[in-house]
């Protein structure tokens, strides 16, 4: 009697889900022109860090071409390891007490009408770098008294004394980015807390400041989660919200889950205003400092 040999059935491997293709509305122009070249020269000469470069901002050509830039103080190495951010992570060794003067002089030389200042997280510093923050704003105001300033400050990890110092220099706008909706915090901002960032915004508002925050879309959030984030922000005193498309900076970072259509961005803008926000900047290429000069006119 012949023995039948039964071979195992090999199932074909499931095809990996196709990654979403970058749509036409996300195309940007390369930075060119004499105004851009002048800003590039000044940034290099004064050994300044800009989030425009470190964050691979798609609007760098447009903003620098208009003679504006967002300066990043306290070095270019961050103590956090957020899954979306292109800024280097590690143990910072840069702490330059002369940095406020250099930033202030550069802003004066560039004749900037509105400056945005941000920083990496410096969790290893007892004051989170608050003294550098304060001096940068104060010295900029001294050299350029007509220049308006927005400070985009990091999470102070509930060091509220540090927050008080950071926001006391005389800036017109104080921003702190939520970055994403609550359900995605552990994935996107593993060393941050959704409620703590809301409290930071609330305390900033209670101190009498114009408040601003930003959220990236396309990370897998649902519409109702975006609405809830808007409601939470309004409840905690937010004035200005920016909404933009998340773009994966390198293959090591979290992938884009979805490219949000411009029509949905327009819908979110109207929804945010309806829910009580005073100003909403919403679009695929919107970033925290995009059109920031317009935000100083938002009533407190």
UniProtKB/TrEMBL annotation:
Which cofactors does this gene product need?
[4Fe-4S] cluster
Biochemical pathway = Protein modification; protein lipoylation via endogenous pathway; protein N(6)-(lipoyl)lysine from octanoyl-[acyl-carrier-protein]: step 2/2
The molecular function GO annotations come to:
4 iron, 4 sulfur cluster binding; lipoate synthase activity; metal ion binding
> Major place of localization?
cytoplasm
Q: Which UniProt keywords apply?
A: 4Fe-4S, Cytoplasm, Iron, Iron-sulfur, Metal-binding, S-adenosyl-L-methionine, Transferase
Q: Name one GO biological process term.
A: protein lipoylation
4Fe-4S among the record's keywords? yes
Q: What is this protein called?
A: Lipoyl synthase
Q: How is the cofactor bound?
A: Binds 2 [4Fe-4S] clusters per subunit. One cluster is coordinated with 3 cysteines and an exchangeable S-adenosyl-L-methionine.
Under SUPFAM superfamilies, the record lists:
Radical SAM enzymes
Write the Enzyme Commission number(s) for this entry. 2.8.1.8
Question: Would I find Lipid biosynthesis among this entry's keywords?
Answer: no
Q: What residues does the Radical SAM core domain cover?
A: 64-278
Which residues does the annotation say bind [4Fe-4S] cluster 2?
78, 82, 85
Name of encoding gene = lipA
Cross-referenced NCBIfam families: lipA, PRK05481.1, PRK12928.1
Family designation:
Belongs to the radical SAM superfamily. Lipoyl synthase family.
This protein's GO cellular component annotations are:
cytoplasm
Source organism superkingdom: Bacteria
Q: Where, in this chain's numbering, is [4Fe-4S] cluster 1 bound?
A: 52, 57, 63, 289
Against SMART domains, the record matches this protein to: Elp3
Can you state which reaction this protein catalyses?
Answer: [[Fe-S] cluster scaffold protein carrying a second [4Fe-4S](2+) cluster] + N(6)-octanoyl-L-lysyl-[protein] + 2 oxidized [2Fe-2S]-[ferredoxin] + 2 S-adenosyl-L-methionine + 4 H(+) = [[Fe-S] cluster scaffold protein] + N(6)-[(R)-dihydrolipoyl]-L-lysyl-[protein] + 4 Fe(3+) + 2 hydrogen sulfide + 2 5'-deoxyadenosine + 2 L-methionine + 2 reduced [2Fe-2S]-[ferredoxin]
EC category name:
transferase
- Pfam families (UniProt xref): LIAS_N (PF16881), Radical_SAM (PF04055)
What subcellular compartments does it reside in? Cytoplasm
């Amino acid at each position: 009697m012949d023995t039948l040999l039964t071979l195992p059935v090999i199932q074909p491997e499931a095809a990996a889900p196709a990654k979403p293709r970058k749509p036409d509305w996300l195309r940007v122009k390369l930075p060119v022109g004499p105004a851009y070249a002048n800003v590039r020269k000044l940034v290099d000469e004064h050994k300044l860090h800009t989030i425009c470069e470190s964050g691979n901002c798609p609007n760098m050509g447009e903003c620098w071409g208009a003679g504006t830039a967002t300066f990043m103080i306290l070095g270019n190495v961050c103590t956090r390891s957020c899954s979306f951010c292109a800024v280097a992570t590690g143990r910072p060794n840069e702490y330059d007490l002369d940095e406020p003067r250099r930033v202030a002089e550069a802003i004066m030389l560039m004749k900037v009408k509105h400056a945005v200042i941000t920083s990496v997280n410096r969790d290893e510093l007892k004051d989170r770098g608050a003294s550098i923050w304060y001096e940068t704003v104060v010295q900029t105001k001294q050299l350029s008294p007509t220049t308006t300033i927005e400070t985009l400050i990091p999470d102070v990890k509930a060091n509220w004394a540090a927050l008080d110092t950071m926001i006391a220099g005389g800036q017109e706008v104080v921003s702190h980015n939520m970055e994403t909706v609550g359900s995605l915090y552990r994935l996107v901002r593993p060393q941050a807390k959704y409620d703590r960032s809301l409290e930071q915004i609330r305390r900033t508002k209670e101190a009498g400041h114009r408040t601003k925050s930003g959220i990236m879309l396309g990370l897998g959030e649902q519409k109702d989660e975006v609405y809830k984030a808007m409601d939470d922000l309004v409840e905690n005193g937010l004035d200005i919200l920016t909404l933009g498309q998340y773009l994966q900076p390198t293959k090591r970072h979290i992938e884009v889950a979805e490219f949000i259509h411009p029509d949905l961005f327009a819908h979110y803008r109207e929804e945010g205003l309806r829910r009580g926000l005073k100003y909403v900047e919403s679009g695929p290429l919107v970033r925290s400092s995009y059109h920031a000069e317009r935000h100083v006119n938002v009533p407190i």
